[in-house]
Amino acid sequence: MGLWISHCKELSVPASENFSLTAVLTDPYEIRQWNTFGLPKDKISIENAILVTWAKRWPLLIDPQEQANRWIRQMEDANGLKIVKLTDSNLMHVLESGIRIGNSVLLEEIGETLDPILSSVLLKQTFVQAGRTLIRLGDADVEYNDSFRLYMTTKLPNPHYLPEICIQVTMINFTITTSGLEEQLLSDVICLEQPELEQQRNELITRINNDKNQLQSIEDKVLRILYASEGNILDDEALIDTLNESKETAGVIASRLLETEAAEANISVAREKYHLVATRGSVLYFVVAQLADIDPMYQFSLKYFNQVFNKVISTTEKAEDLAVRLQILLNEITLAVYTNVSRGLFERHKLIFSFMLCARIYKEAGIINELQWNFLLR
């Protein structure tokens, strides 16, 4: 991104100093709504959600941890979401009903192939006949409702789709990343350790969003009045009064925005103090996820890991000193993950798991560097 901005400056193209796709295509209030529906709070998940809502083609989500699935279920519940699998006998009936009424449809557990009968829906091959918008579904023409939305999810962690499928859908990878999981775990830690801080942050986001909306409506009102005015503007006392009033209101809101944004920055600084715990949690999860390479039987879901992680934070001994509390959390979370996961391992794999945990923690801390690690492996 920095390369693009510097290149724009060289060519004298106007560009924001801190460009953000999230800031351009959505707002904090909408993001908070997504979060309440179960969308993880990390940057990658939010950018994925933007692709889901803005893309012209229907989204196919690679979702091994089923986070996107849970988010879509809750978000589209109010829109009469219908959930179906490709193997279900009533697939065509559900699709036809969704297209006709305008309900959302979620196709779960997609494999590496799609039924050719879905092509017309995926390509949105609608046509107008006698003033009605129709789409060909199987052998029948179905009236197409613009409110209809289609989502597809697959649990496969690394699927291989042929080009003819890729060009029909918007492929979005919802697989959890290290930084993404860190953000999620940080939110969990703050909610349990400093709930008032997280509540205050949510209130500030709502307030900032409301103020920005109010500023926008004031600007729209002024432009509308100026556009509708006739004759000399200076002779129109009502117009001048409205402009003055709008200017004063905008000034108050703008100063309030500066204060709330500064307060939000302070809260973000306070949240970062717990980042160490979130990083350790992320490191542990990816070690646990790697166990499936040793034996396919070792499958531990992210939901289960989160339950262990949150339970430790809730039940461990509290401490007034933050440094002491953080050390307690690091030790207890590591021990709890090792203990819980080891119960499900063969005896011969427990030593391997211990070594993987230690090595990954030491690599994260910088005690083992990449050169040493590669020397050991090779």
UniProtKB/TrEMBL annotation:
<dbReference type="GO" id="GO:0030286">
    <property type="term" value="C:dynein complex"/>
</dbReference>
<keyword id="KW-0963">Cytoplasm</keyword>
<comment type="similarity">
    <text>Belongs to the dynein heavy chain family.</text>
</comment>
<dbReference type="GO" id="GO:0005524">
    <property type="term" value="F:ATP binding"/>
</dbReference>
<dbReference type="GO" id="GO:0045505">
    <property type="term" value="F:dynein intermediate chain binding"/>
</dbReference>
<keyword id="KW-0243">Dynein</keyword>
<keyword id="KW-0969">Cilium</keyword>
<keyword id="KW-0493">Microtubule</keyword>
<dbReference type="GO" id="GO:0005874">
    <property type="term" value="C:microtubule"/>
</dbReference>
<keyword id="KW-0206">Cytoskeleton</keyword>
<keyword id="KW-0547">Nucleotide-binding</keyword>
<keyword id="KW-0966">Cell projection</keyword>
<dbReference type="GO" id="GO:0005930">
    <property type="term" value="C:axoneme"/>
</dbReference>
<feature type="domain" description="Dynein heavy chain ATP-binding dynein motor region">
    <location>
        <begin position="32"/>
        <end position="252"/>
    </location>
</feature>
<dbReference type="GO" id="GO:0051959">
    <property type="term" value="F:dynein light intermediate chain binding"/>
</dbReference>
<dbReference type="InterPro" id="IPR027417">
    <property type="entry name" value="P-loop_NTPase"/>
</dbReference>
<keyword id="KW-0067">ATP-binding</keyword>
<dbReference type="Pfam" id="PF12781">
    <property type="entry name" value="AAA_9"/>
</dbReference>
<dbReference type="InterPro" id="IPR026983">
    <property type="entry name" value="DHC"/>
</dbReference>
<dbReference type="GO" id="GO:0007018">
    <property type="term" value="P:microtubule-based movement"/>
</dbReference>
<protein>
    <recommendedName>
        <fullName>Dynein heavy chain ATP-binding dynein motor region domain-containing protein</fullName>
    </recommendedName>
</protein>
<dbReference type="InterPro" id="IPR035706">
    <property type="entry name" value="AAA_9"/>
</dbReference>
<keyword id="KW-0175">Coiled coil</keyword>
<keyword id="KW-0505">Motor protein</keyword>
